[in-house]
Write a structure and sequence with these properties.
8 strands; about 15% strand; 4-stranded antiparallel sheet; single chain; 4-stranded mixed sheet; alpha+beta; 13 helices
């Protein structure tokens, strides 16, 4: 399939994409990895993350003084799109590179920048996100994890769920309540960097229905975090986390998790293994449109501007699109004999199992609709 992913007339980005595609094609041919759907969540391969870092494709936007590569957000965007489109295993470094590094650069202390950013850029230090909680889901304003100030730092007590990669990560950025304001649920929240070798932190596996283990429940039992572990300012957690979520919600993973499946479906149609169907063409066209929307948000963020509502739109439409790809592929290829188009069928099975989570992670569609509604003035 000819990729629907293109750039505006920017020779440097086209050349970068071509370089990444050559590398990925060679890696697949050499058996370095097997393409898979949802690879940014399910494809944990630390050696591959380090390999990308050696090529300068992790920590791209981190300044050189902190071990990064001083490259632009659109260059990073181009590289990550190609990695996702190829189904490359990028889960190990994904959260640290996508979300934590920009947050530390924006809100972190000098000590935090020098401690964490070079490690992230090396592709060998991994973060998780401690946001969602039992009975709270995507409603982050209802966070009940409590941070209590003690001598020299803070003690955190509470439970986080759906914490991707926490059983393998080195650290977790935790959203916790440091004060209570009955008139403003968004006030009194703060962020902390919790290193996961802390003896007062317990990580419990959550196993998916396909038997794989990506998610976790993380229990903090008076886990001590020194004052140097506070990320940003006490009480600014809501402002900080909503800024960070724009990076998460607008990223290409919100529309390309099932792109390897779409490519296989188009190829199988060309081979005559599955019937030609107008729905496939519409999916290809929609992928191109969503790519353009996601790129626009990336450009806005690169300029330092807010794009929270635009990011919510991309995530809302993108994750529904991913599910549509799985449904159409299942309708067209679900009845094939087991030995016909085996890779297509494997992608279909994996996509259907992962699909229930598409519209939940990064904020449920119900929450995102509320963000968009408030932005256009139809809800308070």
């Amino acid at each position: 399939m000819t990729s629907t992913i293109t750039d505006r007339p920017r020779p440097e980005l086209r050349e970068l994409r071509a370089e990444v595609r050559r590398f990925l094609a060679g890696a697949v041919e050499a058996g370095v990895f097997t393409p898979r759907v949802n690879s940014w969540l399910t494809g944990w391969d630390e050696s591959f993350s380090r390999l990308l870092a050696e090529r300068g494709w992790v920590g791209m936007t981190i300044p050189a003084e902190f071990g990064g590569h001083d490259r632009g957000h659109l260059e990073r965007f181009s590289v990550t799109e190609e990695l996702l489109a190829a189904g490359a295993p990028v889960a190990a470094h994904w959260i640290a590179d996508r979300q934590i590094a920009p947050s530390i650069l924006k809100y972190g202390t000098e000590e935090q920048k020098r401690r964490y950013l070079p490690r992230i850029a090396s592709g060998a230090y991994y973060f998780g996100l401690g946001m969602s909680e039992p009975d709270s889901g995507s409603d982050l304003a209802s966070v009940r994890t409590r941070a209590t100030e003690v001598d020299g730092g803070w003690e955190l007590t509470g439970t986080k769920v759906w914490t991707s990669g926490a059983h393998r990560a080195h650290a977790l950025v935790v959203l916790a309540r440091t004060a209570t304001d009955p008139d403003d649920r968004h006030a009194g929240l703060s962020q902390f960097v919790v290193e996961l070798d802390n003896p007062r932190v317990q990580v419990k596996p959550i196993t998916s229905m396909n038997g794989e283990h990506h998610f976790n429940e993380v229990v903090l039992d008076e886990a001590f975090v020194p004052d140097g572990g506070v990320l940003g300012n006490i009480g600014d957690g809501w402002k900080q986390v909503t800024s960070e979520l724009a990076f998460e919600r607008s990223g290409p993973e919100r529309l390309l998790s099932t792109y390897p499946l779409l490519q296989e479906l188009v190829a199988a149609t060309g081979r005559g293994s599955v019937p030609a169907d107008a729905r496939v063409g519409r999916l290809v066209a929609r992928t191109a449109a969503l790519h353009r929307m996601s790129t626009d948000v990336a450009e806005t963020l690169a300029q330092g501007d807010s794009a929270s509502s635009e990011a919510a739109v991309v995530k809302l439409l993108g994750t529904r699109h991913e599910g549509d790809i799985a449904d159409v592929a299942d309708a067209l290829a679900g009845g094939l004999p087991p030995d016909r188009e085996p890779r297509l069928q494997e992608h279909v099975r994996a996509s259907l199992l992962e699909m229930p989570g598409f519209t939940l992670r990064g904020g449920s569609n119900e929450v995102l609709r509320g963000i968009v509604a408030r932005q256009i003035g139809v809800s308070r």
